[in-house]
Each structure stands twice: as C-alpha cells, then as structure tokens.
Write a structure and sequence with these properties.
Residues 16-37 have a biased composition (Polar residues). InterPro entries: 1_2-HQD/HQD, Catechol_dOase_N, Intradiol_dOase_C, Intradiol_dOase_core, Intradiol_RC_Dioxygenase. It holds the Pfam family Dioxygenase_N. Residues 1-37 are annotated as: Disordered. With 330 residues, the protein is α/β, with parallel strands linked by helices. The protein contains 7 helices and 12 strands. It folds into 2 domains: 39-91, no CATH class; 108-319, Aromatic compound dioxygenase (Protocatechuate 3,4-Dioxygenase, subunit A). It is globular, with a radius of gyration of 24 Å. The chain starts with 38 loop residues before the first helix and ends in a 12-residue tail after the last helix. It binds fe (ii) ion. Residues 136, 138, 251, 253 line the site of fe (ii) ion (FE2).
Length: 330
Amino acid sequence: MASALEEPLNLAPVTEGQNGTIGANGTSSSTKSQYDPNFTDNVIKATGPKANKRLAQLMPGLVRHLHDFCRENEVTVEEWSQSVEFLNECGRMSDDKRNEGQLFWDILGVESLVDEITYKVAADSGEKPTTTAILGPFWRPNAPIYPMGSSTILKDQGGDVTHMHGSVTDFTTGKPITNAEIDIWHTAPNGLYEQQDPEQPDMNLRGRFYTPDSGDYDFYCLRPTPYPIPFDGPAGKFLKLLDRHPMRPAHIHFIISAKGYKPVVTQIFDRRDEWLGNDSVFAVKDSLVVDFAPKQGDEKAGFDLKYDFKLVAVEDAKNGVHGGTEVTSA
Ligand SMILES: [Fe+2]
C-alpha cells in the first residue's frame, strides 16, 4: 500500500461549512464554524481521580491545544488519517539501531526545547558549567571501554584524525573529578554512524573513557563531518513537505557522567562548518562551538582539540546551581 506521505498534503484552505456541520465534535469561539461547545471539556473530565499525577497535570493543556489546533485549522479526517499513518510509519521504521520517533521530535525542535527547559542557566553566573545539547537518535549503550590515549577509530576510512584532550572538573570547586565516564560517538567521514553502515565495524567511532585522579582525559577520534539525518523514512518525507534540508553541522556527541554529579549530554560543533547556523534539529549553542587546531609532532593525528567539561554536583544542583544551557544560535 502506498504511503500516505508520498503525496504532498493538500494545504488549500477548507471552505467554511465543509468541516463544521452542527452536531460534529467540538467548537471554538475562535472559529466561525459551530461545534459542540462542551466537547473538549468532556474529554478532559474523563480523566479519573486515580490518574497518574503528572499526566493528569499535562493532559488538559495538551487536549485543549490539540482540539483548538484541529478546530482553528479545520483539520479533515483525511489529514488526521495521514498523521496516524505517519506515526505508525515512524514506529515500523524504529528498532534498536534506528529511532525515527526521536528524529521526528528533533526536526520539530522539541528535543532541543525540552533540553533547554531541563537544564536552565544559573542566571547570575558569568561562567557556566558545560552546556547541554540533545542526545539525538544515534547513541548506543555499552560502547567499548578504552584506556586513556586510545583511539575510537576501528577502521581507516579517511578523515582528519584528532587528538582530543582536556579535563573533567567540578564546576563549583574546580577540583578534578576522578572516574568520570566520557562516552563519545560520531559519524565516519561518509556521514554515517556505524549502525547505519554495514561497511563499518560494530561500535566504530564510539568509546567510553574513565578519568584518573587528575581528571584529565585524552583520546583519538576524527574531526567530525556534516551529515544529513536519515531522510529515507517518514521524518525525511516530512522535511521534504516542509521544503527543509536534512543537514546537521559537523559535531561530536558526549555523555559525561560521574558519581555524585549531574550527567551532561552534549555535542561540540566544528566552527568551520557551513551548516552551523542552520542545523536541521536546532541543537547548536555558542559555547559548544570549537576550533580544531593543526597539530605538529604527533604521527597519529593532524589536529588537536582541547575541551574541558565542568559538571555540577547533585548537592550543588539542589542549592540552585544548574547544568547550563543557553539560547540556541541556530
Ligand atoms: Fe549526531
């Protein structure tokens, strides 16, 4: 059966009365059509007294916004059916190597938005802890653990080998953090993560490193490459319908975690990248843009990148120090 999204949506305005006969569900004072004025309230009131507390808090607003959206735009049954098929397609395409649902939220900017909401900036702080960015759909658990100084490159596919190094410290005290886990992942020069590419070894360009007492880390990886998010599925079709490109600026993903500290999920971006101001998932933040410097005297790497991670202790977070984020530059 052909996908509901293979043909562009017909977005021509619906003529008044076409989708608003008396007795149809819903009404809104903001539209001229006559809908049942009690419909939305009835749906909200259906929630029972033993409902999950957070859901009971969230659902009235969600239902109201959804219903108003449908009324204001006079959404037709055909259009709604396409949205159902779209979500089903996202589910069918997702498995342990592909997360199409998350990709969809990403291209709508929702993961970046909730990331910003979750990690508010300490407003009075001139210096900030390491800024967060979205996890994205390509993280895999249980990446191999390597000793410091190792390489995550399991197969030579070209690219600029980079020696990345720095420290993991306590944001408040500046002291080094021992046994912090640095989980890193990025694409190969062909723009594909290893789980997307049968030519790459399993867990290529991924790794976990644990800091010694000094809190210092170093390893070899690649200077990242810009890549398109997968556009062979429903999220890609959606981008096409919106006349949007799928490109992400070159970046490396990290999760930095340590006992007693708030974990930081983040990405760093190559300043040279042409897509920096136009990220398809809206994740770029100024403090995460870095400069790769040419490196001399290291036969393994042609580039050098120093980056320090600053974590907030859980106790400090309780006292108002927050993991940082900032307005996105994209
Ligand atoms: Fe990525």
